[in-house]
Amino acid sequence: MVEKPSFLIQVENIEKPLEHVASSSSILETLEQAKVEVPYQCREGFCGACRATLIEGQTQYSNEPLAFVRDGEVLLCCSKPVSNIKIKLP
Ligand code: FES
């Protein structure tokens, strides 16, 4: 069986990058498991509360979110990294 790749999530102001394993459902889940506090409400891409700045790298949404997202932003609750990424939390 081929292992799915995992990617690193570098959060601004946190020294050590976090590993996003393929089984993690979202960037938000990975951050929560590492005890990083992230604002959120709906966890489904509606409210925009989990919006963060994507400084580097690429992410992909599981379902296209309804909340407004500008270029350079990402909703953490419904996306996964598809490369190593660097983000800045709100
Ligand atoms: S928590 Fe509502 S859009 Fe992410």
How many discrete domains? 1
Low-confidence stretches: none
- Rg, please? 12 Å
> Considering the protein shown, what is the CATH homologous superfamily?
Beta-grasp domain
The CATH architecture assignment turns out to be Roll
Largest sheet at a glance?
5 strands, mixed
Integer average pLDDT: 94
- What is the first-to-last residue Cα distance? 38 Å
Q: Order of helices and strands, N to C?
A: EEHEEEEE
Which ligands, by name, code or SMILES, are bound? Answer: FE2/S2 (inorganic) cluster
β-strand percent reads 25-35%
Q: What's the level 1 CATH class? A: Alpha Beta
Tally of contiguous helical segments: 1
Form type: globular
The number of E-state strands comes to 7
Strand order of the largest sheet: 2-1-7-3-5
Helix content: under 10%
Structural class: mainly beta
For this structure, the CATH topology is Ubiquitin-like (UB roll)
Domain 2Fe-2S ferredoxin-type: 5-90
InterPro entries: 2Fe-2S_ferredoxin-like_sf, 2Fe-2S_ferredoxin-type, 2Fe2S_fd_BS, Benzoxazolinone_Detox_Enz, Beta-grasp_dom_sf
Keywords: Ubiquinone
Pfam families: Fer2
Explain what you see.
The structure is a single chain. With 90 residues, this protein is mainly beta. It has one domain (5-88): Beta-grasp domain (Ubiquitin-like (UB roll), Roll), CATH 3.10.20. It is built from 1 helix and 7 strands. Strand 1 and strand 2 (18-20) form a beta hairpin. The mean pLDDT is 94. The site of FE2/S2 (inorganic) cluster has 13 residues, from loops.
